[in-house]
């Protein structure tokens, strides 16, 4: 384990753009590994992009139907079988605090005892994932690796606004996805986790392009400012409402759904100020969860918001969607949110929450058909585990990923 600690120190001290080289050198020296390559998932979660190649030069690896994609999707090591005396090709997920980043691939010498080296290699990937998130503040290398094509300026602004695409704690696990990933306008989400609760925000700014991105950015940052000032949900909505109104004087508004989940009890406080909606999967049955609709942010001056409450139970799955999802229509004119969304949620009940948004959006695309959707589509999936005894976990448990069963090499 001293070697792992030494690698972690080397990663912390390395120049931000040299993390793959540091890991490659360490794995070659300790395990005789070759062919070490780091790939990161693109914004649409459809491909894995090589980190060290110039953007769009190296052929990407598809997330679906590839060995690397199997490791990424299942979040389990995947061993690609070959000839008995050939190097052992291993693919390992790179994840940090539930945020799925990519896959580290390497060749191990024939006959390597995987049971002995696999725990160490998984620690290497965990340390690498953490350092990538830190290094992104100082280099564009890892951001560029997430692009299968160029982003519009509005999409650039929106992606920089997001906290991540997934998050996991002992009490919950969630995943989120935006489409079209490279031209998103006004849909956004945000979350924050404390010792006692999870705050989740879904936003939909009106308009298109830069106007929508600027509007949503103002609203999300106003909500963050209010949350960090210690205001409750109603106070957060009121402050953001004032900020949007002060800037646009009622000419533009932002639809927002604000929620705070208490870890100890499962009680949820909610403020519905617009269009994002919620469906719940409990005991195999899907039901929409209606809210008391209130005015979107910025429509009028000094709007007063009133929270409401409900409770989630361990085992509940919650799906949040923007109007670009549930209002999309089929060729027959039926809205996706009427029946098809519930079918998609039921069909994906065995998938982890990180994979559900993408699966629902693929079902939406097939349901809508051609032409492509003319609005943003946002899906967030939350699995609730809670704290059965209402206790507060220690620091190590709080940082651990949510339980998803064993992770065998396949």
Automatic annotation (TrEMBL):
UniProtKB keywords: Hydrolase
One MF term in the entry's GO annotations: phosphatase activity
A Pfam family recorded for this sequence: SpoIIE
Hydrolase found in the keyword field: yes
Positions of region (Disordered): 391-410
Keyword match Glycoprotein: no
Low complexity bias spans: 391-402
Record-annotated PPM-type phosphatase domain positions: 169-384
SUPFAM superfamilies associated with the record: PP2C-like
Name of the protein: Stage II sporulation protein E (SpoIIE)
Originating organism: Streptomyces fradiae ATCC 10745 = DSM 40063
Lineage: Bacteria, Bacillati, Actinomycetota, Actinomycetes, Kitasatosporales
């Amino acid at each position: 384990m001293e070697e792992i600690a030494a690698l972690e120190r080397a990663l912390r001290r390395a120049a931000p753009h040299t993390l793959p080289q540091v890991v490659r050198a360490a794995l070659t020296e300790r395990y005789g590994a070759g062919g070490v390559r780091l790939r990161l998932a693109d914004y649409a979660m459809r491909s894995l992009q090589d980190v060290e190649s110039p953007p769009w030069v190296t052929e990407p690896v598809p997330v679906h139907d590839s060995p690397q994609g199997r490791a990424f999707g299942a979040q389990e090591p995947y061993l690609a079988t070959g000839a008995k005396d050939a190097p052992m090709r291993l693919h390992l997920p790179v994840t940090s605090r539930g945020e799925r980043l990519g896959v580290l691939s390497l060749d191990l010498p024939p006959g390597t005892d995987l049971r002995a080296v696999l725990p160490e290699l998984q620690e290497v990937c965990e340390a690498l994932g953490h350092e990538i998130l830190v290094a992104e503040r100082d280099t564009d290398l890892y951001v560029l690796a997430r692009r299968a094509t160029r982003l519009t300026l509005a999409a650039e602004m929106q992606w920089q606004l997001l906290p991540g695409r997934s998050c996991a704690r002992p009490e919950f696990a969630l995943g989120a996805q935006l489409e079209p990933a490279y031209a998103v306008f006004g849909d956004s989400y945000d979350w924050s986790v404390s010792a006692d609760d999870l705050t989740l925000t879904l936003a939909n700014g009106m308009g298109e392009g830069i106007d929508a991105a600027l509007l949503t950015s103002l609203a999300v940052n106003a909500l963050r400012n209010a949350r960090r000032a210690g205001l409750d949900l109603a106070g957060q909505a009121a402050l953001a409402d004032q900020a949007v109104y002060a800037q646009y004087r009622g000419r533009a508004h932002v639809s927002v759904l604000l929620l705070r989940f208490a870890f100890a009890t499962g009680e949820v406080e909610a403020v519905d100020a617009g269009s994002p909606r919620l469906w719940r999967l409990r005991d195999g049955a899907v039901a929409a969860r209606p809210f008391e609709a209130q005015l979107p942010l910025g429509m009028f001056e000094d709007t007063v918001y009133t929270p409401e409450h409900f409770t989630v139970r361990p085992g509940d799955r919650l799906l949040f969607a923007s109007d670009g999802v549930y209002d999309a229509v089929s060729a027959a004119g039926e809205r996706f949110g009427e029946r098809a969304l519930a079918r998609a949620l039921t069909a994906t009940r065995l998938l982890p929450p990180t994979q559900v948004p993408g699966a629902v959006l693929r079902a939406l695309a097939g349901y809508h058909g051609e032409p492509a959707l003319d609005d943003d589509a946002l899906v967030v999936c939350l699995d609730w585990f809670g704290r059965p005894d209402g206790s507060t976990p220690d620091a190590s448990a709080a940082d651990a990923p949510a339980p998803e069963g064993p992770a065998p090499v396949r």
